[in-house]
Amino acid sequence: xxxxxxxxAAAVRGDSDLLSRLLASAxxxxxxxxxxxxxxxxxxxxxxxxxxxxxxxxxxxxxxxxLSRNLAALQRHRxxxxxxxxxxxxxxxxxxGASASNHPTIVCRRADGQNISLSPNNxxxxxxxxxxxxxxPAFAVGHSLALCGVGDGxxxxxxxxxxxxxxxxxxxxxxxxxxxxxxxxxxxMIHDYTGKQGPIEQERFLWFVGSDWIHPLxxxxxxxxxxxxxxISLMLGLQFQSIQSxxxxxxxxxxxxxxxxxxxxxxxxxxxGASDFSAVFSTDPPRRPRVMLLTTRxxxxxxxxxxxxxxxxxxxxxxxxxxxEPTPHHRVLTTGIxxxxxxFKPDLVFQIDHQRQEHAEMFPSNLPFVCWIQDHMPxxxxxxxxxxxxxxxxxxxxxxxxxxxxxxYPKRQMIALAKLTTPPPLMPRATVxxxxxxxxxxxxxxxxxxxxxxxxxxxxxxxxxxxxxxxxCVRRITxxxxxxDSLSTFPDISRFIRELLAEMDLTLDPEPLHQLIRAxxxxxxxxxxxxxxxxxxxxxxxxxxxxxxxxxxxxxxHEDFALYARGAxxxxxxxxxxxxxxxxxxxxxxxxxxxxxxLDGICSGAFFLVRHHVADTAPQALLDLLxxxxxxxxxxxxxxxARISDSTRARFETLVGETRRALCPMGTEDPIEVIxxxxxxRLLEPRGGVLPxxxxxxxxxxxxxxxxxxxxxxxxxxxxxxxADQRRSILARxxxxxxxxxITHRMxxxxxxxxxxxxxxxxxxxxxxxxx
Length: 772
Hints:
single chain; alpha/beta; six-stranded parallel β-sheet; five-stranded parallel β-sheet; about 50% helix; globular; disordered C terminus
């Protein structure tokens, strides 16, 4: 009709004003006819829009509307599938039928002429419920799925709309394997697969459709070592047996590829000895050394620290390869790592918080492997972990003495390293135009004592006496902080818990007791220490007329602090800008103040006030006393006691006790060994202090905090002067580039010492070459 022709012309020209006038008076028949024209011309978006505007849609119009939406989405997001579908010849071997429950289903004609519904027992919703129930174990762990046929299309829709809740933003991958494109085309008439929650747009759905589906699937699985092959297959279509058979052939090829990679790795590293590695670690390597860094996208902290480390290696002349999941539905698989090793041939493997033995036999024993311990996790602090450290394993940590004494780590393989920073650009004060609050604190330690108690009771289930103990422990510690006291070190908390156990006539075995002390230390005491300081800050800010902003997830849910909640702040530029705009940032932590955020903030030009902790001062004071009275060669308490003068003995013993309390959580470490490790990591420098002007920016209670706020809030020039000195100190001591040059040089020295003890490709017996 004329009206249909006019609607078409306006839509093609993009004349929205005319189109609106024409559609205002158009009835369903006109809109449907215009939609038919748009479909015939493959203007799927226009067709879907027209059908969507129909005041009344019958079943036929509903089918066309659904198909148009799906084809428009496929045209945008999956062009190969779209091209396959629109080039199909006509066929009547499958179509839409009514199921026993009157829900639409797909009916196909078999080769023998029999029609069969693709819904189990011809009941689509019942079949869907059964499939979803059977998949619960796969959902729990995120196993990848293969749909061997689209079936009646209901399961594909449900898997997209209701994905399993996995760790962080991890996603489950789903492979759609459908040789009969006509079946898929029919499903597109019944189910709306569009939108961000649909299987067309979601990248975790991988579509392999048409008679040639096998070849792109083979190319994808063999070409993407981080894509988990289907672990569970669901038989949905009439061709499921042939689909499954072809899939198994490809999976065997994937396995063969992994075997080939393993053989290649073993052959290459069998020819390498310690001298080969020590040569490329030297300051004048025969070729550019290569380092492979393992990390995961599912930890923001680890992936950023790993990328910063990679940049530090590159500045030192290394070629780098970061192994990380490309997308949320990818995985860092054994096969992927092995393929990367075979192709890249690294001279060093680097990973934060994980060791070689956690990868089974992935890495040859002579390939140097470095674990940078940033978090003192239980799996790292066990003697079993220490016993597996070999001559080519290196451990970076600022707590080396603790791991040597308590977990049996070989001292020779420990290299001291502190938290590091990649210096961001200094933001001049003149460029800071949008002020933040006067005082800013950034932390995710936002849970209330009641919430943490609930978690502790879940973490440590037991009888009523156990629950009563945990409850009483939390109550007393909360009251202790409310009264103005604190438990700020692991030994303090350990003593408190042991005394309460004795008072309540309870005992715990060593391992459960240690786990409980760790849990009470963090998150409970860690959070209460911060919350106590925030309460001081609120009062001081009110008295001084200053504003306060709390940034992080969860402050809005804490009844005492919701008024000051400002939401989360992203790492990187957002963090640097916020801390630079604030007059004063707070660093509040029951351990050494040199946290990653503080290092990055100061390098951006931000000013910090620090809550004093014994770890900030006692180790430095002990180091200075040793340098003055004993000399730099003294490495233990007994040796120092033999040299110390009577006039300084009392102060020496006091500092040893404070340092032991601050840095010796297991009670077995030698405090002087610990501070020598810190000295090697440049956390401490004789007569240098942990940070310039630390005494001037530190506070220990509400009164001293108020005094510091009054002094610095109104004096931007003084803040700038202090921050500039601190920034220079950090750049000289804690950059990735400088630290990585130091540690690789040290590893090269140790490997050079090892070369005379081992043959190429062979691992020395445990203990050879280890210093006492």
